[in-house]
Amino acid sequence: MTTPDAQALTAICSATAREVGSHLLRWRRERGSVASDTKSGPTDVVTAADREAEEMVRDRLLSAYPDAGWWGEESGRAVGTGADLEWVVDPIDGTVNFLYGLPGWAVSIAAVWRGDVVGAAVMVPSVATLFSASQGMGAWSDEDGARRRLRPTECTDLTQALIATGFAYDASVRTRQGVAAGQLVGRVRDIRRAGAAAVDLCSVAAGRVDAYFETGLQPWDLAAGGLIAREAGAVVSERSDGTVVASGPALAPQLEALLTEVGALP
Ligand code: IPD
Ligand code: CA
Ligand code: CA
């Protein structure tokens, strides 16, 4: 496969995320509370909507690029015949929000070319907002017909920083995360746990929080939102264990030091 046009890949990520997001919003409105099953543990839920959405995304993306590889949260990883290009997809990021009828869940789609995320879209249907980015082209939001270039905040003072985080499904891991968050909350403006990692990363990109950190993320949680945050100008550090820290550049070194001090980074 020849090197693809990142913007063309972002366009298909965006169109698919919008279409599947609208489908899910209707699904939620028409069917009310949603039947769920569990995965890694009793709090790690999957609904029929997650599976249906992943099928829809897969159908749209692999119809357009039949040779591409595929990595979706619900159906796993399959290597395409010419897998220089791989789609990395979380059909519903924030399933617990979706389950309870809370806003803030998202459809997250990334186009990965030879291991680098080059195009990304995160659609948040409950607020009708699409976040997207192409490598080297900046990050954008589309909301109520208004297109806006994204920038992280210029916060330099950790005591004034609003920090998003998330908790793992494993009870012992989230207990440790909660203890560290308890230490952190007295040292910063406040903490937010909004319930969808992709949206948290877009919130850093858009300057709606000053920073985000979490441990134990999976590739589909991070791929699209990570590119969007970086293209907005945020510093996003990733470790192989799924630890992610994202903020504006001025905050990054201090934040890393504080998170280490309070035991929030493994
Ligand atoms: C979860 C959400 C949550 C984060 C978890 C993720 P899911 O994804 O992004 O905010 O804290 O680590 O697993 O299960 O809703 O797709
Ligand atoms: Ca997720
Ligand atoms: Ca999910």
Task: Walk me through what this model shows.
- Helices cover 37% and strands 27% of the residues.
- The chain has 266 residues and is an alpha+beta fold.
- It folds into two domains: 6-149, 2-Layer Sandwich (Fructose-1,6-Bisphosphatase, Chain A, domain 1); 158-261, D-Maltodextrin-Binding Protein, domain 2.
- Strands 4-3-5-6-7-8-9-10 form an eight-stranded mixed beta sheet, with helices on both faces. The protein has a five-stranded mixed beta sheet with strand order 12-11-13-15-14, sandwiched between helices. Strands 1-2 form a two-stranded antiparallel ribbon.
- The N and C termini lie far apart (39 Å).
- The model has no long low-confidence stretch (mean pLDDT 94).
- The structure holds D-MYO-inositol-1-phosphate and calcium ion (2 copies).
Write the layout of secondary structure elements.
Elements: H1 6-31, E1 36-38, E2 45-47, H2 48-64, E3 69-72, E4 76-78, E5 85-93, H3 95-100, E6 106-113, E7 116-124, E8 129-134, E9 139-143, E10 146-149, E11 162-165, H4 171-185, E12 190-192, H5 197-206, E13 211-214, H6 219-232, E14 235-238, E15 244-247, H7 252-261
Parallel strand pairs: 3-5, 11-12, 11-13
Antiparallel strand pairs: 1-2, 3-4, 5-6, 6-7, 7-8, 8-9, 9-10, 13-15, 14-15
Helix pairs in contact: 1-2, 5-6
The chain binds D-MYO-inositol-1-phosphate (IPD) and calcium ion (2 copies).
